[in-house]
Amino acid sequence: MSYVDAEIASQPDCWREAALLAGAVADDLPRPGERVAVVGCGTSWFMAMAYAARREAAGQGETDAFQASEFPVGRRYDRLVAITRSGTTTEVTELLATLRDRVPTTVLVGDPASPAVELADAAVTMPFADERSVVQTRFATTALALLRAHLGDNIGALSADAEVAVRAPLPIDPTRVEQVTFLGRGWTVGLAHEAALKCREAATFWAEAYPAMDYRHGPISVAAPGRLVWAFGELPDGLPEDVAATGAAFVHSRTHGTRTVLGSWAAGRTPVDPMADLILAQRFAVALATSCGLDPDAPRHLTRSVVLT
């Protein structure tokens, strides 16, 4: 078993531990009504996107997500939250240094001894979710689980869905797919981007991601037999039928199981929370890699942390 396989499988336990931690660190996390910015790089940025949309939808206050390198330093926020597994990523550490004594900052980090811990005003350390793999899975989702717990989401139910997701059959055989597009709405747009990134990182596979409502404004032209559209969360009316008309396969987790349109074929029941569905997408990416003879623990051109000189 690869490192990334083991780390994907450990997510239910990590999410439960994050829910317990959320209560202990509540004073360091955004308060209702605060204007908040959330930053990260790569996978962490996509988790920031998901949390920002979910916090606003929960009525907790205006929340924006940025790549750390693109944060508008002249804009006023009540708090900045940075998500970084290693705590060494250059764009994050430089931003925390720039904002010192200007904006209260909290860092969610895997390594308690990392530079980001010293640079932020408050640190939420999660060494139990840190990873050996280059391809990031459990740390990012555990950070999102902690933030969702702070919003009042039921992480116990989410973790139960995740227990199913780590064992359920994949909704489609990756060897039958030549391209995949992931879609989301609201907070699940970030999950869609993350799922596509996993396919690109682990398997050097052609994967795209879009807001589901925007998909029919051009990107659907890529859909065809042998290709896959995988949607997270709420679906726009008519989308499954429009995808089916292209001949592409369609996967969507919903209350009564996973709907997969591939001719007349339908898959069995799988989890319903979109974060648990992301676990299936992570596993799909690893299966893509191994089916191509690639090592998902040694992705091409990537390192565990980007430190610029």
TrEMBL record:
One Gene Ontology biological process? carbohydrate derivative metabolic process
Which PROSITE patterns did the record assign?
SIS (PS51464)
Q: Which residues does the UniProt record annotate as the domain SIS?
A: 25-157
Task: Write down the InterPro entries for this protein, in alphabetical order.
Answer: GlmS/AgaS_SIS (IPR035466), GlmS/FrlB_SIS (IPR035490), SIS_dom (IPR001347), SIS_dom_sf (IPR046348)
The entry's keywords:
Repeat
**Does the keyword Repeat feature in the UniProt annotation?**
yes
GO MF assignments:
carbohydrate derivative binding
List, alphabetically, the SUPFAM superfamilies matched: SIS domain (SSF53697)
Report the protein name in the record.
SIS domain-containing protein
Q: What taxonomic lineage is listed for the species of origin?
A: Bacteria, Bacillati, Actinomycetota, Actinomycetes, Micromonosporales
